[in-house]
Every structure is written in C-alpha cells, then in structure tokens.
Amino acid sequence: MGILDSKIPAGPLADKWTKHKNDINLVNPANKRNIDIIVVGTGLAGGAAAATLAELGYNVKTFCYQDSPRRAHSIAAQGGINAAKNYQGDGDSNYRLFYDTIKGGDYRSREANVYRLAEVSGNIIDQCVAQGVPFAREYGGMLDNRSFGGVLVSRTFYAKGQTGQQLLLGAYAAMNRQINRGKIQSYTRHEMMDLVLVDGKARGIIARDLVSGEIERHSAHAVVLATGGYGNVFFLSTNAMGSNVMAAWRAHRKGAFFANPCFTQIHPTCIPVSGDHQSKLTLMSESLRNDGRIWVPKKMEDAVAIREGKLKPTQIAEEDRDYYLERRYPAFGNLVPRDVASRAAKERCDAGFGVNKTGEAVYLDFASAIKRYGKEKALTSGIKNPDEATIIKLGEEVIEAKYGNLFQMYEKIVDQNPYKTPMMIYPAVHYTMGGLWVDYNLQTTIPGCYCAGEANFSDHGANRLGASALMQGLADGYFVLPYTIGDYLSSDIRTGKIPTDSKEFEEAEKQVRDRMEKLMSGTGIHSVDYYHKKLGKIMWNKCGMARNAQGLEEAVKEIADLRKDFWENVKVTGTMDSKNQELEKAGRVADFLELGELFAKDALHRNESCGGHFREEYQTEEGEALRDDKNFKYVAAWEYAGEPKDAKLHKEDLVYENIELKTRSYK
Amino acid sequence: MKLYLKIWRQKDASSPGKIVDYTLDGVEGDMSFLEMLDILNEELVSKGEEPVEFDHDCREGICGTCSLQINGEPHGPDRLVTTCQLHMRKFNDGDTIVIEPFRAKAFPVIKDLIVDRSAFERIQQAGGYISVNTSGNTVDANCIPINKHAADEAMDAATCIGCGACVAACKNASAMLFTSAKVSQFALLPQGRVEAVERVQNMVRQMDLEGFGNCTNTGACEVECPKGISLTNIARMNREYLSASIKG
To answer: CB A192: neighbour CB atoms within 10 A?
Structure first.
C-alpha cells in the first residue's frame, strides 16, 4: 500500500459507505461545543460543510476572499446538478451514475468514492428543495430534468441557467442560519496565507485581512480547505478573477500531496477570445448542447469567406455544413463528454475550418431546435397549419424560457443575436480535476487537514462530466465531510483550545510576512499581470488541449525561468498594511508559478492520453485518446520537496472490482 | 477610442476622497468596462502609481461583486447588465466618463471604488433562510409539488445577485428591492410559508437598523437592477409585512 492509504472500507461497493458510517467514531454533542473547525472557501463544498458542521454543534470559522460567502465562484455554474433520482423513468440508478462518472473520467478515479457520490446524489436534491432552492418544474409541479454530456439519461436538475447561484444561495442560507445562532463566524475579505501545523497536525491558519492588511492567527482542531480549482494558472479561464490555488498550494508545501495536477478540463462551449485585452473567458453552459448543433463549413472556401466576412453562416446550405460531432460520434452526437467535444473543435479549427477572424471558433446552432419546439408549441397551443414565422416566434419563446439568460449574456458580450445567427464557441479552461490528494474520508496527507470540492482530486478522474461539480461539492460538504471529520476529531475531545501564541504560529506568521516583504521588494518594471499572462501563454500553448514531450519539457524550464524573473523583478505598488489588490494578485501568481511547473512535470510523466490529458504521441489512428492501463492506472500524488522539479511521485494504484476497464467509446 | 475618465480616489474609509482625471487611449469596443480599467491600472502600475481599486470577481455578471456608479447610473448606461458585462461599444470616442463608488450611508467606502456592502449580509442572516437541518433526512423532493408559476416567480426573485445597485439608484438609498426579493423567494414557496411571519419582520427590522432609507415608489431600483428584479416584490413584501403585523 505504501505511503498512500486510501482507507477505502472493505465490503461490497454498495455497502461501503453505510458500513463506514456505522463503524467510525462519533463526537458527542457536549464535546462538539469544545471543538473548533476552520473552513477556508465558502462555495458549495465549503459553505455546505460549514453549515452542517455548525449545525452539528462544532464552532466554525469560515474564510473567504470575497466580500460575502455567497459570491464564491460556485455561483457561476450554469447548467445543473446531477442526481440519480430516476424521476424520468429512463432507467437511471445509482449504479448508472457511478458507471457514467467512472467512464466519463476515463477510468482514473476511485470506485468507492464515486459510488458514494452517486449514492448521496438523490439526498442533495431533497435537501435543496427543503431549503427552498427554486429548481425548474413541470406543469404538474414535479421537478424537471435535462440531459448533459456523456450520459444517455436525463438526470440533471436545474434552475434556469443559474443552478450554481441557486444552490450556493441555498448553502449560504444554511450558513446564515448558523451565523445568526453564533455557531459560524464568517470572515470575509480574508485570505488564507498559510497552514499552521502543530505536532504534525493541521491546527490553524495564518490569514490576511484584505481591508486592513493585518496578519491574523486562527487556531482550530481541524482545517477544511474548500478553495476550488486552479484553472487560473492559464490566466484566461472561466474561473473568477480571484480564483487561486494559494490555500491548496500552501498546504502542499506543508506536506499535503498534490494529485494529478495535469488533469484539467477544457470546456468546449465558451465564447471565443476577442483580443489581447481579454481578462477572462465566459462559459456557455453545456446544457445548450441539448438543443444546439455544432458545426463548421464542409468546404474550405466557405470557411475562408466566413472569416473574411464575405459570407454569413445562415447562407450556408444544410448539405455544406459539417456537423462533425454527429458525424464522428453518432451514438452521443452533440452530447459527447467535454474532453471529446473540445478536441474535436480544435481538430476542425487546426484543419482550417474555424469560423471567426482568429480561426478559432465553431458554430453552435439553434435553428433546428427553434423550428422543432415551434412546431410542438403551435400544436399544443391549438394553432393548425402555422406559418414559418409563427413557428419561429413560438420556438424562440421556448428557447428563451430554457436558456434566456445565456442568450442575453452572449449577445451582450459578442454583440450578435444568437436567436438569429448561430453562436460562435471555442474551448476554454474551465475546471481542474486534479487537486490535493485525499483519502476516502477527504483527509489530505496532513492529519487534520481536509479538502473538499474542486480543490481535491477525488471523484472525476481525468475528465469531469457536466453537472457533476455541483453534485460533488454539495455531497462532500453536506453529506461526507461532516461524518468523516468526526472520526478524526473524536480523539481531540480532551485537547482543549489550541493556543495561537505557540512557536509554530509565530514561525508561520513570520514566514508569511517575509514572503510578502520579498514580493514588495521587486525592482523591475513589470506588473503582476504581465507575469501571469506570460505563464498563461506557456500553459495554453504547451500544457493545453494537446501536449507532447518536447513542449512539456520546454514548459518546465520556461516556467522555472519565469518564476525566477518574477521573484527578482515583479513590481508591486502600494503597501503591505493596507488594502492592496496588486499584492493580493502577486501572492496568488507566485503560487501559480510553482504549480504550473508541477503541472507540466505531471503531464510529462504521464505517457498516455486519458480524459482531458491528451498527449499527441499517444493516440489511435482515428485521433482518439490512447490510454495505457498497464502502466498508468494510478493516481499520481506529488510530495513537495523544494523546487517543483524535485517533487517526489507517489502512486496510488486504482483498483477496479466492479467495472471492467474498456476503451471509452461514444460512437 | 480615447476617453477622459474622472475617477473617485479615496485612500481608505477615514480619508477624504476626490475625483482624479485620467486620459486613456486605445480603448476598443470589445473590451468590457472593467477591462478598460485593467488597462488604465496597467498604465498606472508601470508609472509606479497606485492602481484604482474596484470590486470584481466572476466577470460574467452573476457573482454580484462588481459595482460602480458610471455617469450617475449604477452599472452604467446599458440595461440588464452588471459593470463587468458592460462593453465599451456603448461609449464613443472622446467621451468623458465619471466613475464613482455606490453611494449610500449603509455602504461606506473602503477604498477608491470599493464599498462595504455587509449590511446586505446581516439582513439575510436575520431570516433569509428556511430552518431545515442539512442532514439529508428530508422527504423525497417530489413529495412537495409546487405550481410551476409559483416556482418560476420564486426563481425570478431568487435571481437577485445582491450587488446593491438598487440602493445606489434610489434617492433614499433604500434596500427594499433587495430585501423584498429575498423575502419573496421564500414567501412564494410552500417550504418558506412556515416561517413567513417571523422572516419578514426580522429582515425588515434589520434593514431599518442598517440605515437604509424607505421606499417612495420611484421605481429607479427596478430600472437599474441588472437582473430585472421587479417592483412587484416590494408590494409583496409590504403585504407580507402588513399581514405579519396583524398576525404577529
């Protein structure tokens, strides 16, 4: 088993979680009052965990860099949340959700974790409805579902195109109930600067009040990191501007292993880059692929004419369009998983069929859905022999009801009306499957340091399916962590309050101050953003949708050089002891400059293609990912050892007892 | 295009602030308003000056972090967008743009264009939730059928991103639109009816304590709201409050 013990309970897959809950230690209610827990990050995972832990009776402190917990980036999730409710009677089950998730992740996730996720998925919906989350409903008053990529059932629950917002407001409401009771102390505009270990256990954090600049010490019996993903290492991504890896990376430097950093999701349907000024990318929900058809022109001359503005997409005849996903993957069509759809778009654009001025865009077309819905609506409205205009009008109304806010967002950004002309989309960095290594209990390799949601690596393997991030965040926060953390804390009932005047806290605080001073002392002329953009370019070009050994070797070196330059020269204005957004960014970019190198190193070592990790050297004749289960059926967990290049690899072999490993096919 | 910017600069909460003039060249129509400010900041940093601080995060119009009073309007001249989704194509070459923080007694300035909106959080903490445990031991979700229209209306109210534009737009700096959106979401759902009486009373009490003004039905909030939250919610909250006063 080696150094990595996943602590997966024995017994049949479907009984593991129930048995585990029955076997683990509990903390009695009177003792919970004497135990403190810090939760860093207040998105779905952190918010849900904080609310539930406080409700159980623990004293909880939450930290977020935003001015309110409800602004965490979970709020931006659009499409929906999966649950194996089988309300549609289309054959769904816990097993199917489990199977789809493992297969979608290209067989690089843990069976036991994923099954547990599927098992609690139904509870999430019950819970959220009880909390007043206004999910979409049918006319009979029952919950509505839609379908997402990589599956053959409709199991996605949604609230317009704002599901993440509604779920987060639900979790935040649950938090508010506990804040009102005094069981949660919510620290907003605070950033975790370091993790504090006492006798090898996580016992607190050093945080910075982003308004006053003050450095604070906070102690606890356990620390939960729910700080999201590290997609912003690419500079341009669909993450929020402030999303960062600092908390996870600080923990990594203190001994938490970082797993599969190269597993990153490039989402197929984002608004294409419009110029160098771009600060972030905007996602167009995967749910749009329920009704939108993706295509590029069949003829090269048409593609060229479109790029030059001489031809409009609506002028291209049906037979001259290449619906390449429907052509290549007839079984799943436009609803293939994200990694497959992204690579297919890149393949067409690389071949010269891109449709915007940069040549990096494909069409997402709603014309046929508008007609289909329009006809149906005319019939149900009692309109006989409707004319074309009526059909389109009615169809547009249906589309608006389903995706109105997304269409409006597209129009505001691109200045084109997507009801009348197809959307243009291109893949963009969206989500990171990699993250801190955790065992079945969501504990990292540091005792007492837990990690939940996107920040951990556990459930999505090498590719996440749509609408599964919300499911995992809430599962971890509401239903997993509150149980498993009790097992650890049961040995802490006699510990008493953790003092913050110990030498460990003092040293950690000093390190934080020294690091900030060093950041402020750069003598060059370039801003933090300058370095961040440079890092992003290296990552996108060499660690993006397609990677190869040569490019990755270059990336490792280029990032190390850039990091050196950054630490010597970066120019940070303002002072340490006041509100200073440049300093905030500098600290975050400093950590991205380390993570980026580990990312490239991980991608270089994994000599196979799987999920979002596509190595050009390893592909089938048809250009599909070629996995190597003999040599790489493991989780790569990296131990910090100074420079990222020296990180030490530990392997957790993935054991499949319930699923047969197959080549993933969506044909 | 070339723009003349007049931007509110204020060191911290206790220092006085003032409008500072900047000229910015090379602005393109495809840029968002915040990307325009990014460029200004990049220029300022390269000159060794402190950049203009402003709140922003998701930059896709949903987190509600960005604010800004642009030429006197919260989130600027476009309708149904937040500042991060406002694009420079709405402006013309040579325009002068005045950029200030949201102004309200209950939203004190932290620095430059950043204000403290924690009053909104305290209003929600006073009752913006349903008191149900997060244990998962609830009834099956479909045991509570909800009329589609009620669910849709609740969703419309729940769309509020809590950005504070309603307060900044109101001559009384009233938080009625925000508070009523939160009250309405729960009032419209059967799950929320159980505690409806206490909820509306507690949330309105907290709203008044925070120093927001009252509503005089000018409707400016509805016009400026980036999410199109309807004035109907205020009417609903008043009704809830009145009936709660009689019952309670």
So the answer is: 25
